Amino acid sequence: MRILKQLALIFGVCLAGDLLSVVIHNFLPGNVLGMLLMLLLLWRGWIKESQIQETAGFFEHNMAFLFLPTCLGVLELSGEVLAVLWQILVIILITTLLTVTVTSATVKLLSRRSGGRKEDGYAA
């Protein structure tokens, strides 16, 4: 019964994200809004980690299995993917460089703001 309650809570938040996506005319995908909503609920303490820990852990440990249908779908479209492979690789390169740059700038900014203090065993 505990697992069913956890599943209901997780899927309820996912459903709320989907409904919110419809309300804002699909400006953001429902799954993204659901994750942001779950983050907000956990951060504010309205949902405790212990309330979803067991089921969330199961999903986390079996994530590769859960992505299998998506991977097989990409394989079915391999001809279409190969036709635009160079475009995909360029996008991957640009977004990777952008992510590294933004992460580096964020770390430098936070390091300066903290005054170079050592926190949690890491040098800033």
Which spans of ≥5 residues are poorly predicted at pLDDT below 50? Answer: none
- Based on CA atoms alone, the radius of gyration comes out at 20 Å
H/E order of the elements? HHHHHHH
Secondary-structure content class = mainly alpha
Taken together, the total number of domains comes to 2
Strand content: under 5%
Outline type: extended
The residue-averaged pLDDT reads 90
Can you walk me through this structure?
The chain has 124 residues and is an all-alpha fold. The chain folds into two domains: 1-66, no CATH class; 73-114. 76% of the residues lie in helices and 0% in strands. Helix 1 crosses helix 2 (30-44) and helix 1 packs across helix 3.
Notable characteristics:
single chain; 124 residues; mainly alpha; 2 domains; 7 helices; extended
What's this, in brief?
It contains 7 helices and no strands.
